[in-house]
Amino acid sequence: MMLQVKDLSIEFHDHLVPETVVYDFDLQMEPGEIVGIVGESGSGKSMSALAIAGLLSRKDMRKKGQILYAGKDLLTCSRKELRALQGKEIGMVFQEPMHSLNPLRKVGWQVEEALLLHSDLTKEERKEKALQMLSMVELKDTERIYRSYPHELSGGQRQRVMLASALICHPKLLIADEITTSLDVTVQAAILKLLQRFNKESGISILFISHDLNVVKKICQRILVMQKGRVVEEGTTEGLFENPKTEYTRELLDSIPKIRKLTV
Q: Is 48 exposed, middle or buried (0-12, 13-18, 19+ CB in 10 A)?
């Protein structure tokens, strides 16, 4: 097993009254698996993903349980051990690249950043690898994009840049948090195909976070459904769509727009 999360609970302590946002979250992932976590805004799915990525503050919150990866508990390991995994073993892509990309840094530097931390490559070697990765995420005119600032690119191009940055060190696990939400349908489909291609060609495992069951259906083999901080249902994608067990899952399925055939 590549990743195992046991009884993860997250409680914020930055208010007068502590607030629990995730209760007893469990997750198991095998190498090469694509697993989806779905739920409405505030369901705890992104908080769970951030905890797995090691990106939650260790102040003002209490985290219980275990997140086991590569023999280490990411909740209790040292910051040095955690930083050694972030970017190299575990990559993460967020919903809005403009909030993640540094507007004052050119794209090339940002794609290369993980290589600066996790490799001994020369400046020339880092650039060559960055250009290769920009090409692998199907960006054209890679030299221009390498020299560009984020604001000079389209939303779809920025999301591909974020993918290139997250994948540059060939991590074993990619966490994709709502990465297709702000994209139009055509670009969304292209990003999903990219993820599927990387999964097939490199065997990377993908934890795909979304509020949209229709999108998750296209890419995931298993799905966890979260509501108010708890996993309320889990199963194969096919089984969950054909035979949902909870009323909440049925409501999510019913909310998927249906295409009606028009009769003339």
A: buried
Closest CA to 26 of 52, 53, 58, 57: 52
The DSSP line for the chain is --EEEEEEEEEE-SSSS-EEEEEEEEEEE-TT-EEEEE--TTSSHHHHHHHHHT-S-SSSEEEEEEEEETTEETTTS-HHHHHHHBTTTEEEE-S-HHHHS-TTS-HHHHHHHHHHHH----HHHHHHHHHHHHHHTT-SSHHHHHH--GGGS-HHHHHHHHHHHHHTT--SEEEEESTTTTS-HHHHHHHHHHHHHHHHHH--EEEEEES-HHHHHHH-SEEEEEETTEEEEEEEHHHHHHS--SHHHHHHHHTSPPPPPP--
> Where residue 258 falls among pLDDT bands split at 50, 70, 90?
low
- pLDDT of 262 reads 39
- Tokens representing residue 232 in the block: 């309320």
pLDDT reading at 41 higher than 60: yes
Burial of residue 40 (CB within 10 Å: 0-12, 13-18, 19+) is middle
Per-residue pLDDT of 135-162, as tens digits, reads 999 999 999 999 999 999 998 999 999 9
Q: What pLDDT, in 10s, does the model give residues 171-205?
A: 999 999 999 887 888 989 999 999 999 999 999 99
Q: Residues 155, 97: contact at Cβ < 8 Å?
A: yes
User: Could you tell me the pTM of the whole model?
Assistant: 0.93
DSSP-derived secondary structure for 115-149: HHHH----HHHHHHHHHHHHHHTT-SSHHHHHH--
